[in-house]
């Protein structure tokens, strides 16, 4: 696979970040699934979870930053790269994906138009994006926004599609399995909502959690016999 860094200088930082993420995550998805579609002579993953999740987080960054006065270059760059070296689960390996990503930021951005004086802030945000609960609000604002956008992307309608598409990659999956995991996830989501750093992200997280709750209630209504829960 051709590395985006081999394509010469003059590429903008957004394009470089997106290309780097796409190259790494496509290769990792194909490795993990152990199967690929052939599209115009190229192997393409069945579903590139990492790229879809990151794209959702980047969209959220573009939505959130102007509302709270955060530096969009720092936040968007950190979001593109926050999982850039994260592999689909290997339960035996230690999770170092935040520091792994931070360590390669300067190399990925080398030769692009990204302001070098902002690389430290990007790395700080990446290093602090992990975990589903915060004991205290994150600082500075850009690091806080990256955490909020990463977690918000795991709530809502797009997250349901991402979860459904990736579920079967780990083991055989049924509708009941997805429902049980969804119900367990709702409990964790309460901690995420309570931990949001910024007011707009918290309001959106609450709205998305209500949507998810309705979704799983409806799924339970359709799937379980006897009907245990009334439809909303
Ligand atoms: Fe991550
Ligand atoms: Fe992430």
How would you describe what is shown here?
With 232 residues, this protein is mainly α. The chain has one domain: Hypothetical protein af1432 (Orthogonal Bundle). It is built from ten helices and two strands; from the N terminus they run H-E-E-H-H-H-H-H-H-H-H-H. It has helices at residues 13-33, 49-68, 72-81, 97-103, 105-109, 119-127, 141-152, 157-170, 175-195, 199-223; strands at 36-39, 42-45. A two-stranded antiparallel sheet has the order 1-2. It starts with 12 loop residues before the first helix and ends in a 9-residue tail after the last helix. One fe (ii) ion (FE2) is lined by residues 82-83, 86, 97, 129-130.
Tell me roughly what share of residues is in helical segments. 55-70%
Order of helices and strands: HEEHHHHHHHHH
Q: Uncertain regions: pLDDT < 50 for 5+ in a row? A: 1-8
CATH classification class: Mainly Alpha
Q: Which ligands are bound?
A: fe (ii) ion
From the N-terminal CA to the C-terminal CA, the straight-line distance is 49 Å
Shape: globular
Strand order of the largest sheet: 1-2
SS strand fraction: under 5%
Question: What is the CATH-assigned architecture?
Answer: Orthogonal Bundle
User: Main sheet?
Assistant: 2 strands, antiparallel
Number of helices: 10
Q: Which fold name fills CATH's third level, the topology?
A: Hypothetical protein af1432
> Using only CA atoms, what is the Rg?
19 Å
Can you say what the CATH homologous superfamily is?
Hypothetical protein af1432
Instruction: Please tally the β strands and state the result.
Output: 2
